[in-house]
Amino acid sequence: MINKWVVYPLLMICSICLIFPICYAFFISLMDGGEILQGQILPKSVTYQNYIDAFKSVPLLQYLWNSFIVSTSVTIGMLVVSSLAAFTFVFIPFHGRNVVFFIFISTMMIPWEATMIPNFLTIQKLGWINSYEGLTIPFFALAFGTFLLRQHFKIIPLELYEASQVAGLSQFKFFYKIVLPVSKTSLVTLGAYGFLTTWNMYLWPLLVTSNDSVRTVQIGIKQLQTQEIATEWGVVMAGVIIVIIPALLLLFLGQKQLQKGLTQGSIK
Amino acid sequence: MKVVVDEEHKGQIPATINKLSFLSRTLNNRTALLYLLPSIVLFSVFVFYPMFKTVYLSFFLTDLQGRPAEFVGLENFQYLIQSESFHKSIKATLLFVLYTVPISIVTALFLAIIANEKLKGIGVFRTLFSSTMGMSVAASSVIWLFLFHPSIGAINRLLSIFNIQAIEWLVDPSWALISISITTIWMNTGFTFLILLGGLQNIDENLYESASIDGASFWYKMRRITIPMLSPTLFFIITITLINAFQTFGQVDILTKGGPAESTNLIVYSIYREAFINYQFGTASAQAIVLFFFILIVTILQFKFGEKRVFYQ
Amino acid sequence: MKKVGYSIIILWFVLIMSACSEQTSKNELTKTNESSEDQRVGTKDGDKTKVVFWHSMGGKLQETLDSIVNKYNQSQNEYEIVAEYQGSYEEALTKLRSVGGTDDAPAIMQTFEVGTKYMIDSGFFEPIQTFIDKEDYEMDLLEENIINYYKVDGKFHSMPFNSSTPVLIYNKDAFTEVGLDENKAPRTYSEIKEAAKKLTSVNGNVTDRFGFSMLTYGWFFEQLLATQGGLYVDQNNGRSGDAENVLFNGEEGLRIFNLLNGMNQAGTFGNFGSNWDDIRAAFQSGKVAMYMDSSSGVRNAIENSPFEVGVGFIPHPDNMEPQGVVIGGASLWLSKGIDESIQDGAWNFMKYLQTPEIQAIWHVETGYFAITPAAYEEQLVKDEHSKYPQLKVTVDQLQSTKSQPATQGALISVFPESRQQVVTALENLYQGMAPQEALNQAARGTERAMEIANRTKNKE
Q1: Structural domain ending residue among the three candidates C343, C365, C384
Q2: Residue C20: which pLDDT band, with cuts at 50, 70 and 90?
C-alpha cells in the first residue's frame, strides 16, 4: 500500500529504537564492574563472570519454572472462569442478570493494591502461603475477562443458540463446541493478557512466599540488587537477560500461533 | 456435568419465549448460578470482602499493627482533601494517563500499520516489534534505570555526542514523570502492537481493493476503512491501557520511589507507601476509595462515548 | 479438524492441571529431600532444630550471609538456621506485620535501625536482654557507639548486626589538580564550600564536574544534625519517652539546609537523586569530586575508581566541635512465644555472629563494621586495612564519637515516614524552595504521623 522504500527504513529505525534497551542490557551483562561505571556502551572485553554469579546467588531457573507454572495456571483458570461467566450473561436469561453483571464489572475499578492486605490474611488463613494456590487462585476471576468475552459472545446470533437446542445440543456442548471456537480471537487475546500480567507481578508473590520453593522471577531480579552496598549491575543485567530469554524465545516461537489466533475465528 | 446436561434436555425451550413455566424459569436461574459460581465465590473472597474491609478501614486510624484503633469518621477524607501531597498525586496520575495512553496507542498503531505491509522479511520486524511483550516490569525498569542514569546512562551519553546538555531524567521533577512515561510506553508497545496488528489483519482485503479502484487516498482509506473496522480492537486496547495506567506501580517503585519532590507519586504508589511504609491503613484505604471513583468515572465516560463509536461487523 | 483441535486443548488443560498438582507434590518431595540432605551435612543423628531467619540482604550480601549461615550449620549439631530473603527492609516488615505472633513468623528477623522503636512497640519480640541476663553474657565487648544506639531504657532489645556510618569520600587526583591538599579532607562547612568551588569545573553551560554531592536520603541529614549535637525529636530524641515534637527544623537543621542550598545555588552541588548506585557511579566516573557515602561503600569506591580515593569525617559547621556519628544499619530480633529450643537456637546463632572471626569475615566481605572491635585484631582485617588504609578512617570516626542523646540516634516509630518527608524537603530545596519552609513542611508531616501513632497507641 505504501511505497516499500518508505516502509523499510521506517521499519528499521523503529526496530532499532525498540530493541536498543534490550541490547544495551546484554552489553552491560558482559562488562566487569569498573567498565560499567565508566559508562561504556559497548564492552571492551567480554566476561561471562556475571552470568556465573547470577546463577550462583539466586536460583533463577527454579524461579523461571515457577513463573511459568503460575502464569500458565492463571491464564487457563481465568479463561475457564471468565468464559463460563460471560456465556451465562449472554445466553442464559436469569433474574437480575443486569444487576449481577454490573456488580461484576464494578470489580474492574478496584485497585489490587487496596485489597492486598486483607487478601494476604485470607491466604494465610487458608494455609496457602508458599504454595501455587496462593499465587494463582485469587486471579482466576477477572471482571475484565468476563466483560471482554461477553462483548464477543454477543456477536454470536441468538438464532444459532436456538437452532442448536432444536438440534438437541446441550447448553454446555453449545458452549464448548460453538461459542468457544467462534471466539478464539478473544480467548487468545485475553490469554496473552492474563499470562503477561501474571508474569509481571512482584509485590503479591513476594508477600505470599517466604522461601525459594514457589518464588517467581520478578523477585529474583530484585534479590540481585542491594540497598546500601554497591549493586553489581553486571550481575543484575545478567539476571535480567537470563529472565527475558525464555520469555522472548517463547514469544518468537509462539508468535505465528498467536498471530493466527488473533486473526482467525472472527465471524464475518 | 451429567446432571446439567440432563436438565437441559428437559428444558429445551427457546429462551426468548415469554410464557416460561415456573420450573424452567428457576431452571435458568439454577444453571446461571452453576456457571457463575466460580466467579461469584472468587469475587466474594478476593474482591468484595477486602473492598468492604477497605471501606471500613477508611473511617479509622490504624495502630502500628494495622488494626483499626480509633474511629474518626470522615477525617481521613478531610485530610486528603487538604493534603498537598495528595493533590500532587492526583495531578501526577492524570498527567501520567494523559502522557501514556494516547502515545502508546498511536505508536503501536503506527507500527502495526507499517508492519501490516506484505513485504519480504516482515515477519522479522513483527517479531522485533512485539518483543517488549516478553519483558517484565521488573526487568524493563532495571534496564531503563540504567539508560536514564545521569552520568553514565546511554541516553545522556548519546545526547552529549550531539552536544546537548545532559538531562537529569529521574532527578529533575519536571522530567521524572516523562521518564516514567517513556518506560511505560516502551513496555506497552509490544502487546498493544500485537493486538492492533491482529485487528488490522482481520479487516477484509476487498474493502481496500475496491477503495483503491475508486482512487481513494491512503488517509481516506485510513479514516473510512481502517479506523472504523479496527474500532472494537481499539476500544479493547484503550480500556486495558487506561486501567493499567491508573494502576501503574512497578516502574515507579524501581525507578523513582515516587520522588523527586513527589512528582511521580502516582496514586497506587501513594497507597502502597501509606499502607506498607507508613502503616496508615486508614489514609491508604481512603485513597483507594478515591482511586476507585476515579476509575469508575473514567470507565463510565469511556463506555458512554466510546462504545457508541465502536463499529461491530 | 476443529474438533480435534479442541479436544487437544481440553486434554492439554487436564494435563496441565494434573501437572500442577504433581508439581506441588514434587516440590514437597524435593523440599523434604533437600532438608534431609541438609540434615545429613554436618550431623549424625539428623534431628536438628530449625530456626528460620528472615533477612533483607540481597546480591553480594546474601552470598556472604549464606556462607556464614552454612558455616554455622556445619559447626554444630543442634540447630539449623534457615536464612530466607524477604525483599527490602520495608517489604520484610510489611510481611512481618501480618504474620507477627503467628506460626508463620520467623524466629529471627532482621530490621533496619529506624524500625527499632516500632519493633519494641509491636510486642512480637523477646528483648535479648532476657538471654543476656540468663547467662551473664558479655555485651560490653561490642563497639560502644553501637551499644549506645541499641540499648533502649537500659535494655538490649535486639542484637546489632550489619552496621555502618556515613563518611566523606573524595577524589584525590582532582584535589591535586586544583591545588588542594589531597591528604587533608575538608571538615568544616566553609572548607567544604571552598573546596567544592575549586573542584567544580564548568565547560560552556555544561558542568563537567561538581564539587560536592550528597545522596537525597534522610539518613545523611540525620547524621549532619547529630554531629552538631542537634536532636531530631524531643524527649531526648525519643529515648526518655514517646516523642511528640519535631526538633530537626531548628537552627542545626537549618544550617544543613543553608549549606546545601548555598552550594546548589552556586552550582557547585550536583544532585544525583536518591539512588545509592547513581551517586557512586557519578563519583567513579568523575562527575562529582566529593560526596557522602556509607562506610560500607568505601572499599567499592576505592576499587572501582580509576583515581586515588580519600576518605574523611563528615562535615560540621565552623567553630563547633563535632560530636560524631549515629550508627546505621540493622539488627536482629528474636521472636516471642515460640518454642524455647528454637529461641535458644536463635540466640546461639546471634552469639556466633558476634565472634571476632565471623565479624572479621563479615567486615572484610561486605564493608560493614565489625560490631566487636576485637575483630579488627584478626589477621584478615589487618591485611585488609593495610591494603585499604582509608577503611581505618571510618573506624576512627566511629570510635571518636561522643556519647550523648544526639549521637545515640532518635527513636520514633514513624521514622521511615519521617525519612520520606525529609527526602521530599531536600528535593523541594533543590528545586528552589526556601530552606526553612522546606524543613517546616517535613516537620509538619512528621508531627502528624507521630500524633496519629501516639493517638492510636494509647487506645490499646
Answers
A1: C384
A2: very low
Q: Are residues C351 and C318 in the same domain?
A: no
**Mean pLDDT value across residues C426-433:** 93
Ranges in chain A annotated CATH 1.10.3720.10? 59-263
Domain carrying residue C358? 43-164+328-384
Q: Determine contact: C335 vs chain A, CB below 8 A.
A: no
Q: What is the DSSP string of A186-200?
A: HHHHHHHHHHHHHHH
Answer CATH for B84-309 from 1.20.1050.90, 3.90.550.10, 3.60.15.10, 1.10.3720.10: 1.10.3720.10
Where does C95-244 show beta strands of DSSP type E?
108-112, 125-126, 151-152, 155-156, 159-164, 166-171, 201-203, 206-214
Task: Decide if C356 is inside a domain.
Answer: yes
Same domain, C297 and C335: no
Amino acid identity of residue C348, one-letter, is: N
Using DSSP bridges, classify how beta strands C288-294 and C166-171 pair: parallel, antiparallel or unpaired. Answer: antiparallel
We report the CATH number of the domain holding residue C224 as: 3.40.190.10
Instruction: Answer whether residue C454 is part of any domain.
Output: yes
Considering the domain architecture, whether residues C146 and C174 belong to the same structural domain is answered as no
Q: CB-based contacts of A148: which residues, under 8 Å, 6+ apart? A: A82, A86, A186, A189, A190, B236
Among the partner residues B154, B191, B249, nearest to A113 by beta-carbon distance: B249
Residue C121 domain-assigned?
Answer: yes
CB pairs under 8 A between A and B: 293
Q: Are A202 and A135 in contact (CB under 8 A)?
A: no
Q: Does the interface ipTM go beyond 0.90?
A: no
Mean pLDDT of C70-80: 94
Beta bridge partners of C83: C53
What pLDDT does residue C97 have?
A: 82
Omega within 30 of 0 (cis) for the link into B260:
yes
> Minimal Cα distance from C205: which residue of B?
B165
Mean pLDDT, all residues of chain A: 84
Q: What is the mean pLDDT of chain C?
A: 86
Residue of B nearest to A167 (CA): B12
Chains that touch B (3 or more CB pairs under 8 A): A, C
Is A59-263 a domain of CATH 3.40.50.1110? no
Residue A268 banded pLDDT, cuts 50, 70, 90: very low
* Beta-carbon separation of C6 and A177 below 8 A: yes
> What's this model's pTM, rounded to 2 decimal places?
0.84
Residue B194 burial (C-beta neighbours within 10 Å; 0-12, 13-18, 19+):
buried
* pLDDT at position B11: 40
Q: H helices within chain B, ranges in order?
A: 2-10, 22-43, 49-57, 75-82, 84-115, 122-129, 137-147, 154-161, 173-201, 205-213, 218-221, 227-246, 250-255, 267-272, 281-301, 307-309
Q: Which B positions 244-303 lie with beta carbon below 8 A of chain A?
A: 246-247, 249-250, 253, 267-268, 271-272, 275, 281, 284-285, 288-289, 291-292, 295-296, 299
pLDDT above 90 coverage of chain A, percent = 19
Interface test with B, best of C97, C420, C454 (most B CBs within 10 A): C420
- % of chain C with per-residue pLDDT over 70: 89
